[in-house]
Every structure is written in C-alpha cells, then in structure tokens.
Amino acid sequence: MGLLHTITVKDTGVSFSCAEDQAVLPAMLRTWNGPIRHGCCGGGCGVCRMRILSGDYVAFKPMSAAHVSEAEKEEGVALLCCVQPRSDLIIAKA
Ligand code: FES
Fold it and tell me: pLDDT per residue over 58-70, tens digit each?
C-alpha cells in the first residue's frame, strides 16, 4: 500500500484514509455511509462527482466529459473513482 493521506469531507465531520495507489471513492465507501452512491467506478456515470477544495491529486483514469468539463476540472471538480491523492485533501459536494 502506498503512502496514506487523510481525506476530509467538508461540513460533515467525516474523514478517512486513502493510499496514494488507491482511488478516493473505494476508500470513502469503505469508511463512510454518507450520501455517496456506488456507481460504475470507471469514470463514466458521474455518481461520484465532487469538488476537491484543497490538496494535490492525480487523475489516473479519464473522466467523462459529460460529467466534468475542462473548466470544472480546473476548479477541482473530479470523479472520485478516477483520482488518487498526493496529499491530504478536503472535498465537498460539487
Ligand atoms: S462511480 Fe461512475 S464515474 Fe465514478
């Protein structure tokens, strides 16, 4: 397992650990019964769309342009099944 980072969900009091070699969505699903539904886990359905408010991350899978535009990507909107953390992150509903 890679280096662990802490992911905090703003305004919920929820945080969980996610390794650098792991997508954020499965780490979140393992630890939190919040309002995140389990979708395709492949970047196509948009169910896991959230905004990353702070921290560094990489998109290791392509995100469907139907769910995240280029402009939104620049603002930190991401599909959590497609991103891996590179630092602690603060995320919120997009
Ligand atoms: S779960 Fe479908 S895009 Fe992430």
Answer: 999 999 999 999 9
